[in-house]
Amino acid sequence: MNPYEKEFKQIGLKIAYYRKLQGLTQEKLAEKMDVATPYIGQIEAPNIYKPISLTTLFRIAEALDTPAYKFLDF
Fold first, then answer.
1. How confident is the prediction for the chain on average, in pLDDT?
2. Fewer CB within 10 A of the terminal residue: the chain, N end or C end?
3. Separation between Cα atoms, residue 74 and residue 44, nearest integer Å
4. Hey, what CATH topology would domain 5-72 get?
């Protein structure tokens, strides 16, 4: 188990929260980022460990018009 698995899962849940807050589907977020919808699903899934890069986090933050630090506030 990665020592940061819990944190990556929390990031995914926060991404899902802010996406839903804006009324976006996973498909719409994926379109805004030009990535596949299942990729977003993997990031957000609480039962899947999907580490993401800072670049990906910044791209998600930009697509959701949400400051990146909001995803890292545990």
1. 96
2. N
3. 16
4. 434 Repressor (Amino-terminal Domain) (1.10.260)
Structure tokens at 41: 């699903």
DSSP letter for 49, please.
-
pLDDT digit string, tens, across residues 28-51: 999 999 999 999 999 999 998 899
Enter the pTM of the model.
Answer: 0.93
Domain ranges of the chain: 5-72
Quick check: helix, strand or coil at residue 65? coil
3-class DSSP state of 16: helix
Provide CB contacts within 8 A for 50, sequence distance 6+. Answer: 8, 12, 42, 43
